[in-house]
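Human: Respectfully, please carefully check these C-alpha cells:
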Amino acid sequence: MSFIVQLPLTSSTRMSSVRHLLRSKSEALYVVPFDDRPGKLFEGLEHCRSVIFIAEATKSVVTSTFAATRYLRWPTELREYLFTLLDYSRVHEKVVKYDIFPKYSNITTNSILAKLNGQAIVDFETVAHEHPIYVHRIIGYFVKAMDFVPYFWNETEGQKRSRKTVVSKTTGKVIYDEFNPGACKNIMDKIDHVLAKHYDFTDKELDFIINYDIKYRMSRNNERKYEE
C-alpha cells in the first residue's frame, strides 16, 4: 500500500492516530517527505509539501522495518532523478519519539538526535516565565524564536501583534513583520558552537548542523516564497 499525502502526517498532533495506525498495522513502513521549494512533486500547486509512505500489512503489533529519508529539497532540473537518489535510514526507537515520523537518512543525524534527546533545551531556561521566548510553530528554513510577540494583522482576525503588507485570498489584506534569519547566520553559527559544547557534538556533527541544506536556506528568494 502506498499513498501521497500532505506533510503534516509526519509530525502534527492531529495526525497522531494515523501514524499510530500505520505503525501498528505495518510489517514494513517507509516514509519519504518532500518540500515544495525549489522543486515540486506537482507543478502548478502552491504549498503542496507532501510525504509518500509505503507500507506492507502485518498481523503483528510491532513494525519490523521502519525507515525514512531526509527532508527532500531539489532543483527542478533534477526532478527526473529524484527517486533514484533516495537514501533510506532505519529509524531507531531510542532516538526518535514513537509518535513521530522523522526526516533523516544518515548516521550523523541519528547521532545528533540521540544527543539532543539526552538534554532538552528547556534545561537551560532561567526562572519560568521570567524571560519568555516565542517560537513560531511553522518552520521553514529556520526556526524563528524571539523575546517579543511579532505584529500580525489581517482583515478577518484583526491584530495579532508584524509590517509587510500582502493580500491573501482567504483572509484579505495582511500586515506583518518580516524577518530575514539568513542575514544573521554568522551569529547563529556562533550560538551553535556554544551549544555544541553543551551537547558534546563532534566537529562533524557541528559542521552538519551549520551547513544543513545551506544552499536552500541561504537563498533569500526561496525563504520569502516559503513564508508566503
The chain has two domains: 2-105, 122-227. The longest strand covers residues 26-34. Confidence is low (pLDDT under 50) at residues 221-228. DSSP finds six helices and eleven strands in the chain.
